[in-house]
Amino acid sequence: MNQITMKKIFVSMMILWMLALPAAALAQDPTAEPTAEPTAEMMEEAMPTAEATAESEDAMMAEDTMMGVACDEDYSVQADDWLSKIADKFYGDVLAYPAIVDATNAAAKSGGYDVIDNADVIEPGWTLCIPTAEDAQALLSGAISADTAMMAEAAPTEEAMAEGEAAMMEGAFNFVLVPKNLGNPYFDTANAGAQEAAAELGVSVTYQGSATADATEQIQLLNSLIAQQVDGLAVSANDSDALVPTGADAIAAGIPVVSWDAEIAPGGRTLHVLQAVSEDIGRGQIQLISDLIGGEGQIAILSATSTAPNQNEWIMWMQDELTKPEYANIELVATVYGDDEDEKSYNEAQGLMKTYPDLKGIISPTTVGIAAAARAVQDAGKVGEVMVTGLGTPNQMRDYVKSGAAPAFALWNPANLGYLAIYALNALASGDITGAPGDTFEAGKLGSYTVDDNGVILLGPPTVFNADNIDNFDF
To answer: What b/e sequence results for 72-93 when a residue is b if at least 16 CB atoms lie within 10 Å of its CB, and e otherwise?
Structure first.
């Protein structure tokens, strides 16, 4: 007999017990005069109070709600599993993994299941709750909540309902921050800044993305979020042009779209938050590598994906910078792509050193690639022979800077980038700005910003990190 049935039986027994009180009282007093009809006092004592009736009804309603979502199957995590793969196995949809996370964490409150704190980290042997396809879709759409459906103890109180209504009246927006891919320290840092902004603004920011930097998966996710009628989307695009129709659909549905880090082309976004001027980033990368290799030698570029709009624009400016006379002795021998995956980026860096034994430097304008390239140089025993630079975060690159594998690199603060994206999205959603050129808004600790003629907001110039200053930063 399950817990739900036991609780229902308990509620029913309590009601019967209350109704039996007069008979029990009579049995305890054998001298009492029997009456043909129960007295008014006995009737009042026997009848359940309005409060007791409401409580019992609430309890039974809650039990019925608990029946809404059940674990259709218990799944034991295997060594080569990840959540997107499991979602694909059961639902044929890699983006359905949040339903498994919600159902498992709700079920874990009763024991027998493991808690998933990070959707990118599951361990072999963990037991996951797999809801039915119908329930999974309901969870993803927001039609039901796993916590309410599986763990409800009672109907919401009037106070809680009043608070919820007040929050809705105050316009507590639900925004979604969409990175190129999950498990990337750069985007995780941006999310930390976005959550800081959310706390200051009193809004909700959900962090959702696919496991790989793939435009098709990103479009599928965005379509799902549009169907859920979220209040705003902040997207780092995996493909500038491919996301335009989807972004346009969101805008047509009344959902403001802010692209950040990597732009959605005009027509598919309301605003774009630019981390730094692309020309400055590209030219600065060549200046950095030139300083590191003494102005001469072979260099290569290790990029993210071949369709990443920001990467491609930076590379274009790198190539343009190389045409200047002062770089006549520097030869760009190859541009390769690690798809923002650590292992692939590491293998591409190794391949560059093997294919070009005289290689002097690697530029990787991606946080995943620069760390993988620096590690590959260390593992190959070529510290001091092959210099690595690019764009990275201080915390991931600190050891490589100090070892000499990547003596200097550049980056803006990605936490500020995520922070600014949410402030811009909130200004749009609240009607403070429309995204028109000349619109201005306040962005908390970052101050005032103005929309330029291209619908772009500029965060500010990047910082160059080296052994002299890297310990001054923590992100």
So the answer is: beebebeeebbbbebbeebbeb
Interval 272-298: pLDDT, tens: 999 888 999 999 999 999 999 999 999
CA dist 69 and 149 (Å) reads 6
Which residues lie below 8 Å from residue 300, measured CB to CB, with a gap of 6+?
332, 333, 334, 335, 336, 352, 356, 359, 361, 362, 363
Q: Which pTM was predicted? A: 0.55
Which of 320, 389, 377, 317 minimizes the C-alpha distance to 352?
Answer: 377
Cα(312)–Cα(162) distance, integer angstroms: 51
> Can you list the positions of beta strands (E) in 276-329?
297-303
Rg (CA), the chain: 30
Fold of 73-151: Membrane-bound Lytic Murein Transglycosylase D; Chain A (3.10.350)
Looking at the chain, the number of H-run helices and the number of E-run strands are 18, 16
Q: Which of 3.10.20.30, 3.40.50.2300, 3.40.50.300, 2.40.50.100 would CATH assign to domain 278-411?
A: 3.40.50.2300
Q: Tens digit of pLDDT for each residue in 30-79?
A: 333 444 444 444 444 444 444 444 444 444 443 333 334 678 888 988 87
